[in-house]
Design brief:
By secondary structure, this protein is mainly α. About 65% of the residues lie in helices and about 0% in strands. InterPro entries: Insect_Ionotropic_Sensory_Rcpt.
Length: about 140
Amino acid sequence: MKENVENITSANTTMDMQEAMDVERSLHIMTDCVVNIPVSIGFQKNSPLKPLADIYLSRIVEVGLVEKWLNDAMHPIRSLENEEDEVKALMNLKKLYGAFIALAIGYFLSFVALMGELIHWNFIVKRDPKFDKYAMDIYYSSKNK
């Protein structure tokens, strides 16, 4: 009788632990995973979505998305293991001079174009006797003919 009570209490504690784990995550296939991510895809038996999902999942695996996810998830762990010298920067200020020069040339050319447009507007368009700032559509329709 005492053994039955002990078996029942040990079964109850096992059930309580199992229920606590079920509350924590609803479905987890393996207990010893590399990355503990409780995500799964489940279909009902004979689901019409399963063949389509199989196709997409096989494509995801073929492309390497799963491997990338694992590498991204394991990167902090691997970086702690491999504490090597820090990688030197690939860019420095001397290498950026070319980019700064290209930006300066672009800004200069855009400034010259803007000044040219303003000069053309003020000295050519506004001085035309047919120009009327209140009826600009008439002015431009006569210019397009």
